[in-house]
Inverse folding.
């Protein structure tokens, strides 16, 4: 416990992912992990802004390699993980995703000090519901099925490790083609769409971090 009258120590936060975590096309304060941290601070939970390891286009193996290259990452009080859309986009199998996501989930738990109750996984949104998707020439029903398969894998693995999983596919499909929900490329979410994700993740993160220990 901090001394009486001292400000509580800020909880450290590591956000792992791809374009959806780095927030392609949005200002830094519009990224969903940054929005989530701000909302939690407003609730009295002293969560620092995240250290982000994420780049547009990364697949599961590329994220893992980048984590290796980042050197010893240490321990964090809270870790988020959102990865896999580029695996699906490149035509990789759900089986391969299972193997690589399993390893990433284990690393996330390790980075959270072995605490599975301090890891938050977000599911993959449906890029086929965007303007980019509509113009892509892809079979959008197949895209949705494959992303559902990926998300089912991630949910199953999270449940097996008792890790929190938040599905963001519903808002991405319901509102993914709206101008206000997209940045200029017609593919990546705007800060407004990320705000919808944060509304889903917020009660889960509050539960995970509510005790502050």
């Amino acid at each position: 416990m901090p001394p009486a009258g001292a400000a509580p120590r800020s909880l450290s936060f590591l956000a792992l992912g791809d374009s959806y975590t780095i927030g392609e096309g949005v200002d830094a304060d519009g990224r969903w992990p940054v929005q989530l941290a701000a909302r939690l601070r407003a609730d009295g939970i002293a969560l620092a802004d995240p250290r982000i390891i994420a780049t547009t286009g990364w697949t599961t193996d590329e994220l893992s390699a980048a984590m290796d290259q980042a050197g010893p990452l240490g321990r964090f009080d809270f870790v988020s993980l959102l990865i896999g859309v580029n695996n699906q986009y490149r035509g990789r199998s759900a089986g391969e995703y299972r193997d690589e996501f399993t390893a990433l989930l284990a690393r996330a738990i390790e980075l959270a000090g072995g605490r599975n109750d301090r890891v938050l996984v977000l599911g993959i949104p449906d890029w086929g519901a965007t303007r980019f998707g509509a113009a892509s020439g892809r079979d959008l029903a197949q895209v949705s099925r494959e992303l559902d398969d990926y998300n089912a894998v991630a949910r199953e693995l999270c449940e097996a490790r008792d890790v929190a999983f938040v599905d963001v596919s519903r808002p991405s499909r319901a509102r993914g083609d709206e101008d206000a929900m997209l940045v200029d490329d017609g593919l990546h979410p705007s800060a407004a769409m990320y705000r919808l994700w944060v509304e889903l993740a917020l009660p889960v993160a509050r539960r995970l971090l509510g005790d502050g220990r």
Summary: The first strand starts at residue 13 and ends at 17. Residues 1-6 have pLDDT under 50 and may be disordered. Strands lie at 13-17, 51-54, 78-82, 119-122, 164-166. The longest helix spans residues 140-161.
